[in-house]
């Protein structure tokens, strides 16, 4: 009978208040269970961006769903070439603000143009194209080029590189 006394009413309203606060705040921050079930690549897909924007091996991420602040983590700095013309470097932490079809205020991704390393500061999806901006200039590429994540060291040519190395060691 003690459980039904008047003193239990304030406790139940306190519990209800705590649950309400948790329900309101939890969707805005990534949680351990979200990080356990979703990957950084899944987050890109949720925002209508291709997984190939991140190299293979992303170890985790943080996201604030309210502000769009996004961080993705790699074990170490990652470098590779694409199409034998673009050298890319990813720092171990990549930061930006993510929204549907857009990553802005990007930090941690650089591209080598001629002899200069330039920071990629924004990626915008426009239909079947991705526009990469280095601030003063931008370039468009088909989104199909980013369906697969490149691998550190060999980019998208890892199978070719591995088969050449295998055949030369025979």
Automatic annotation (TrEMBL):
Key word Signal present: yes
Cited Gene3D superfamilies: At5g01610-like
Keywords: Signal
Pfam families in the record: DUF538
Recorded superkingdom: Eukaryota
InterPro entries: At5g01610-like, DUF538
Signal peptide from the UniProt entry: 1-32
Name of protein: Uncharacterized protein At5g01610
Organism of origin: Ziziphus jujuba (Chinese jujube)
Gene transcribed to yield this protein: LOC107406639
């Amino acid at each position: 009978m003690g459980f039904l006394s008047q003193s239990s009413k304030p406790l139940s309203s306190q519990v209800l208040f705590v649950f309400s606060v948790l329900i309101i705040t939890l969707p805005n921050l990534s949680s351990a269970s979200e990080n356990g079930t979703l990957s950084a690549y899944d987050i890109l897909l949720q925002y209508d961006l291709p997984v190939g924007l991140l190299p293979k091996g992303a170890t985790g991420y943080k996201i604030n769903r309210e502000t769009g602040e996004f961080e993705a983590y790699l074990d170490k700095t990652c470098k590779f070439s694409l199409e034998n013309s673009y050298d890319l470097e990813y720092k171990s932490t990549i930061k930006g603000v993510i929204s549907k079809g857009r990553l802005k205020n990007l930090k941690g991704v650089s591209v080598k143009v001629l002899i200069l390393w330039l920071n990629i500061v924004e990626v915008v999806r426009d239909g079947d194209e991705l526009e990469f901006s280095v601030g003063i200039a931008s370039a468009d590429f088909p989104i199909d080029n980013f369906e697969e994540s490149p691998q550190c060291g060999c980019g998208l040519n890892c199978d070719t590189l591995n088969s050449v190395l295998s055949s030369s060691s025979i």
